UniProtKB/TrEMBL annotation:
Keywords: Hydrolase, Metal-binding. This is Peptidase M24. The keyword Amino-acid biosynthesis does not apply. Residues 133-336 form the Peptidase M24 domain. Belongs to the peptidase M24B family. InterPro entries: Creatin/AminoP/Spt16_N, Creatinase/aminopeptidase-like, Creatinase_N, Pept_M24, Pept_M24_MAP, Peptidase_M24B, Peptidase_M24B_aminopep-P_CS. Residues 3-126 form the Creatinase N-terminal domain.
Length: 354
């Protein structure tokens, strides 16, 4: 609640319209799909329709919000603005459509709409102990899935089937849902950083990259492991794998509170560049995760946010060589005062499955 008051004050606002579903969950505990909140200096309201009356009331009341049965018009919301003397209203401009914005402009006559950009989402960057516990459990479930999926990797196995198995294993182990569309990318497809599982089957002597995660209590996990399938591994495969692994371990050894996200990115990037593979590492080193699978701070060349204690970020360098294959290794880590804590327990040394 302090965070919302600070936002009002720092941006010289009389109110904030919360519409982003992750921010709504964070501040009101609402887990449904239809609803929004109005926060003013004097009142806190949560608007939703008849379907969510009971659920929303139970969830938002303990968080200090009053449930308002919404008639689906913004005109009725304007009454609340008037009642609370809102002249400057912050909106989550990155979250609303142009037509929604135009509607607000019409219905909220005389109210100045102020774009908050990602200021609300950024209040979620430092995790509480409870949030960290949820992320840890989501990571633990993902680790179980990795160990179990290895038994299913064989010649002719379809990427999509392996992806479905991973989801099934995680759900059997307590996951609410998958946290994104899994990447199972084998052979030439492993050179695609976002090679979502396809109909391709696993063949001998290729890399297979698994990138997956789940939700537990609303919080995400995200893990990537690359294995080699077959008995004829080349020196090039080994070199690429070990370069990514060394870069990942190096970044983990340097990650700590007080450094800029871009400095952490540079640690892994410089190492990979020194080894001659710089041009094949075309994405950022990582991203934070929490209620969202990708959230601030982003760990990239342009990441100017300073890492702080209890931010949870991924460290996931990769090398991708078109026509040959690729490797990525990803762990979720908690930033600490003097280092970081790696949450994933899945092994990272080169695994050759025959
Ligand atoms: Mn990731």
């Amino acid at each position: 609640m302090m965070k919302l008051n600070n936002l009002l004050q720092q941006n010289n606002l009389d109110g904030i319209l919360l519409t982003n579903k992750y921010n709504l969950r964070y501040f009101t505990s609402f887990t449904g799909t239809t609803g929004f909140a109005l926060v003013t200096k004097t009142g806190r309201y949560f608007f939703s329709d008849f379907r969510y009356k009971e659920q929303a009331t139970n969830q938002v009341t303990p968080r200090g919000f009053e449930f308002v049965l919404w008639d689906r018009s913004m005109k009725s919301v304007a009454e609340f603005l008037k009642k609370n003397e809102v002249k400057r209203l912050g909106i989550e401009d990155q979250d609303v459509t142009l037509s929604y914005y135009n509607n607000l402009k019409t219905e909220f006559e005389g109210v100045e709409l102020v774009a908050l950009e990602d200021k609300v989402s950024k209040t979620r960057m430092i995790k509480t102990e409870e949030e960290i516990e949820n992320i840890k459990e989501a990571v633990r479930i993902a680790d179980i899935a990795f160990s179990k999926i290895l038994e299913k990797v064989k010649e002719g196995a379809k990427e999509k089937d392996l992806s479905a198995e991973i989801e099934y294993i995680m759900k059997l182990n307590g996951a609410e849902d998958k946290s994104f569309d899994f990447i199972v990318a084998s052979g030439y497809r492993s050179a695609m950083p976002h090679g979502v599982a396809s109909d391709k089957t696993i063949e001998k002597n290729e890399f297979v990259t698994f990138d997956f995660g789940c939700y537990y209590n609303g919080y995400a996990s995200d893990i990537t492991r690359t294995i080699f399938f077959g008995d004829e591994i080349t020196e090039k495969h080994k070199e690429i794998y070990n370069t990514v692994l060394e870069a990942q371990l190096l970044a983990i050894s340097k990650a700590k509170a007080g450094m800029k996200a871009s400095e952490l990115d540079k640690v892994a990037r410089d190492y990979i560049t020194e080894k001659g593979y710089g041009e094949y590492f075309g994405h950022g080193l990582g991203h934070a995760l929490g209620l969202e699978i990708h959230e601030q701070p982003f760990v990239s060349k342009i990441g100017d946010i300073v890492l702080e204690e209890n931010m949870v970020v991924t460290i996931e360098p990769g090398i991708y060589i078109e026509g040959f294959g690729g490797v990525r290794i990803e762990d979720d880590v908690i930033i600490k005062k003097d280092g970081c804590e790696v949450l994933n327990k899945s092994p990272k040394e080169l695994l050759i499955l025959k």
